[in-house]
């Protein structure tokens, strides 16, 4: 049984994105399966001891151990690289494994990181608590203030790190401008692109050096399993990430890679619906009693709308809003929902609401949350695929409960 590439692979660079999401990177075994095969094996066998030696030395291509690489995982990596416009990719067990590996693989004691202050809670832990333990201090800045990025640079600065739109306040950071500052300082820019999705924003084309995703979110899109991916140049993957990934083992399971491949097949359709629903829901919420503020990058009142128009293909699938009466009002709103579910996840087919102050960002002090704009009345809504009228009815009932 010999494996072979899908004949489409020879001309992948000529296909549209929708086609690549279905066919990109596919390798079929000699059985000719339609859907990609799931290779759940941990190891591989060799025709001879000499062949094993050659593979371990890297003299010939071939799989060695599924912690290093696996056929199903490799298909997911190839497809993600194609749709992102990246030269190479490495998949990981979760989004946070992707973030941590993308940073640690290129840093050593004495280096310095500059990061946007507005980050997911676990990302803040990595840059504020974890990196300094190993001699890598981090300076946090207001990511929307370019002068703060410039002032934070030191001679030993090696990495800039940001997410945009930010979690949960949906600030939009100017990737191209920040990339220029990073490169002038001799640093790389790492961008967490989860909230925009691969279809809504292309950080590499805007000057970023590395892009990370929690594939758990819109890439899977149905709340099934964990995964992450790091995308960059072939040089970065080979020289910085490969050995770190191989020897520390943040590997994506082959089954989860297969689930992600299935998710990618419908990503374009789902993201289009997510984003269309988000635009409608943002406008609807702005007219509801008890709602003090609505944030969505596609709204003309968004503080960085000009940047959003310039670098995003759409406003994205997330809506953040603030209700009256702080935590009590937010809890009444969330508890009154029937269609929308309370969860700390996002990117699901189901609409999900999160209270960041008591979940994703609860480890921060009230003062730190206030600086980020995360008030007790703030709610984050991951808009799903339901009929928008049903979402509006559900949200109206909840607003009335505030």
Keywords:
single chain; 402 residues; alpha/beta; seven-stranded mixed beta sheet; five-stranded mixed beta sheet; 14 helices; 15% strand
- Give the N-terminus to C-terminus distance in angstroms: 63 Å
What global shape is seen? Answer: globular
What is the beta-strand fraction?
15-25%
* Radius of gyration over C-alpha positions, nearest whole angstrom: 22 Å
Biggest sheet details: 7 strands, mixed
Number of strands: 14
Q: Average pLDDT, to the nearest integer?
A: 95
Task: Name the structural class.
Answer: alpha/beta
Which bin fits the share of residues in helices?
Answer: 25-40%
Order of helical and strand elements? EHEHHEHEHEHEHEEEHHHEHEHEEHEH
Low-pLDDT residue spans: none
Adjacency order of strands in the biggest sheet: 3-9-8-7-6-4-5
Tally of DSSP helical segments: 14
Map the helices and strands.
Layout: E1 4-5, H1 17-23, E2 27-28, H2 49-57, H3 71-84, E3 88-92, H4 95-104, E4 112-116, H5 121-133, E5 138-141, H6 146-152, E6 157-163, H7 175-184, E7 188-192, E8 210-214, E9 228-232, H8 234-248, H9 254-265, H10 267-286, E10 291-295, H11 305-311, E11 318-323, H12 326-336, E12 341-342, E13 352-354, H13 366-372, E14 378-382, H14 388-401
Parallel strand pairs: 4-5, 4-6, 6-7, 7-8, 12-13
Antiparallel strand pairs: 1-2, 3-9, 8-9, 10-11, 11-14, 13-14
Helix pairs in contact: 1-3, 1-9, 3-9, 4-5, 10-14, 12-14
